[in-house]
Design goal:
Blueprint lengths: L6 E5 L3 E6 L13 E4 L5 E3 L12 E3 L2 E7 L2 E16 L2 E13 L3 H17 L4 H7 L27 H9 L6 H7 L1 H4 L14 H23 L10 H4 L1 H12 L4 E3 L21 H4 L12 H5 L10 E14 L10 E4 L11 E13 L23 E8 L9 E8 L6 E2 L10 E2 L3 H19 L1 E6 L8 H16 L9 E4 L2 H4 L9 H6 L1 H7 L2 E4 L2 E4 L3 E6 L5 H21 L13 H19 L6 H6 L4 H19 L2 H11 L6 H9 L9 H16 L7 E9 L12 E8 L2 E8 L4 E9 L3 E8 L7 H4 L5 E7 L6 E5 L5 E4 L14 H6 L7 E6 L24 H18 L12 E3 L5 H7 L2 H14 L1
Parallel strand pairs: 14-21, 17-18, 17-21, 26-31
Antiparallel strand pairs: 1-2, 1-5, 2-3, 3-4, 6-7, 7-8, 8-9, 9-10, 10-11, 10-12, 12-13, 13-14, 14-19, 15-16, 19-20, 22-23, 23-24, 24-25, 25-28, 26-27, 27-30, 28-29
Helix pairs in contact: 1-3, 11-12, 16-17
Length: about 900
Amino acid sequence: MPVVRKLVIFAAVDGLILQPHSGRQAGYHESSALQIDYRTRNVSVAGEKRLAEDSDGLESYGLIGLLPVASYSFLISISQRTQVAQIHGKPVYAVTDVALIPLSSRAEATHAIAQAREHLEDTDYSEEEDEEANVGSLPGSPTREVAVQSPLHTRSQSTSGGIAEDVIGKKVPFGRFAASWLSRKALGLSASGLSVDGSEDSDNDRLERRNERKEDKEKEILEEETDIPAEGGLPSVELLPKLLRYTRLLFASNNFFFAHEYDLTRQIGVFDSSRSPLPLHKAVDPVYFWNRHLMSPFIDAGAHGFVLPLIQGFVGQREFTVAAKPKEEGKPVEGEILGENEAQPAADALKRNFLLTLISRRSVKRPGLRYLRRGVDDDGNTANFVETEQILSDPGWDTCRDIYSFLQIRGSIPLYFSQSPYAFKPVPTLYHPAETNQIAFDRHFRTLGRRYGRIQAVSLVDKSGGELKIGEQYEKYAEALNASGGIEGSPLGLVWFDFHHECRGMKFENVRRLVDGLGDTLDQFGYTVISDNAISQSQTGIVRTNCMDCLDRTGVAQCAFGGWALEQALGRAGLAIDLHNDPSTQWFNTIWADNGDAISKQYSSTAALKGDYTRTRKRNYRGALNDFALTLSRYYNNLVNDYFSQACIDYLLGNVSTRVFGEFAAEMQSADPGISVQKLRQNAIETSCKIVIDDQAEDFLGGWTMLTPREPSTLRSLPFEEAVLLLTDAAVYSCRFDWNTDKVLSFERIDLRHIAHITYGTYITSILTDRQTDEADNVGLLLLYREGDAHALRVNTRSLQSSASLPPPPSTTANFDWDISSWLKNGGNKNQRFLAFKALPLATSVLPGAASSRHPRRPTVRQRDFVRSICEEIERAMRACQEPPHAEGPSVIDEADIISLAEAKKRTGYFEHLVYDIKKMVWA
């Protein structure tokens, strides 16, 4: 079934109608139209009586999908595109603008469609103009580089005023910041400062002036309606304006590409989707299908023709001419690439036209932003994994001439590590035991082996400073993998090329040493050759390159490997050229620099560093100063923008539920869905058991991870820390745990015979968000105890010995028959000791389908029942250790509020509100 190339969206009585444009597309008829119900959001076939003329709706070049948030849903459609390449005569497009249409009612949908149509008319932009502007990409056109806009540059501003008014109309509480987010300019993309060279075309200049004239009036309307109380107060609804803004920013950033008749997710020649009976979305590689989750309602409804797969990454194309001098006897043919302004070759010279296509595909596995997604996850997926394909062909894709394809990949170091975004040069911190790292490391490379064959890893990290340790660990785990049999019997190759040392003095041309050193390996791997529409030679291995970010150094190295592949392919065609020294080949560096900028902006929000060398093969101090400015910009984004952006990416890909926005509202950050938190906590319990329970006679009964105040014997000393609570048949252990190094920092041992009372109940420590004030989800327990000789507090000094602190003997006059409610109400008694624990949220934002099947999942229980069960376990152990054991007797467990909601409100001062408001203003 073909994919709908153009459709019309209009609002009917019961729902949105999606109709193939004019009903004249091949393979489609009136019954192919779809309806999305306003109430249920279900996708179904629309009746013929519901169809309308094209003029009644909004023309769209395809759908990105359906975005549901709480009780709201928005249809995301492609309103503008630009052609960036053609492969076998089939056009490839970049998404340059999108429209978000609310599904709350017909009136709101009609309003949004009308504004979107008005906006398109204001842009003075049409598909015909777009195709004329990109005529250089078509077969037989003059030698010309395809015009590809900056990856974060959009042609147009948003016209989502209807969407904004819909959100406000649903009584969502915002203020002036929200009004700014919801303005036409904010929901769209201000082009200023986002292009690579700072320049903008005249269309954007005119468009920005038009929108600025409308913006002030829209702000006034929005600000007048922002004081209406909220419905429900869901964090996902409160953050909806920012989510909509980011969704537009993401999909209208020239980073997403599609083709109706060509599979962009796979290497050329491997699979011809146009000849397959399968719908395109079933034929594509799911690793690079970025809108799969948003398209799921259409897939489930069987509307295969409306499902348009998108890839994120880069697509660029350049046609060039090689002039070869007549061959002299005994010498190879010399080739010279002619630029647009080069003089014409001699009449007896041989001219050959070629087309170079560059496609980068970002993986949907472990997606996200720089410091928030590092290293490997539990399934062996690495952050910033990108497959890049370089294709050399005839401009007209003549089947009589060979097509050459060369693949290479980049990806984060496949180990569990993290880096703090608060430092300019953060030192990587490794975590998890060696066994856990080795499993993930092996899983990553064996998956690559099944996909690509032999693997040659190239590490560009420093052999000194903070990067030394992780580089050494990379070598260590690679050696262990090879010692265990390698990848399907083939060893993993690893070369450690200290980029900064080898290229010191800004001599980045020295990266050629790396390529030359791997010459034999590259020759063995080869490249794919397609002759007469059949693969005559296959690439048998792949180079995997990484630095710390897999951006700047990696981009320079991959450009060098791509140059080797182009020289080899042209050499096979009988032409010998010098890409390194010939100034006429600078366009090759430019297309690779554009690719590097695109990948960098998708991972770090700025263009790539060292871009001046990649483009010009020269490095000077002006480029160094530009890199410093980009570094500062990255630092700002790491601290301010990336946290919410990461939550949005995880949500749009279907890895997390709307709970992620509740987590973000409370913590200003979200969990990593690729890392099993339950697995981390179970490892912490096992590690703590091995370290703190030194008496072999003690039997381990249970362990839990819970929150505890920073200061002992306090109820609310912020911030709370995640600790490990252990129970044996003799004692209770409270362990402070370092989650980065998997070490116990300190522990406190309480003999069961000294526990006097156990209380569980509401334990509210903050009232800043709705989630933190929910009495059902904020439950804790309190262990009151007498100090005795068996009580010990031990602190890990990270030396050969630990320091031990024993409290004084217990008082013989101590009386523990007090009124627990009065004791808690009065803030406790400083003469008594206690341990306070608060249960972690049982529900998680990670969706079951996103988490690995290996990840243990906690069963769904009520928070209060979970805490009470822990108290009962401790009480049973207390009775069993008595002499003689007592199965019955008065219970030591009492249910009472530890900190009630009313008490929490009294304890929360203005300073806490101020700090939270500042954090929310910065991060949310």
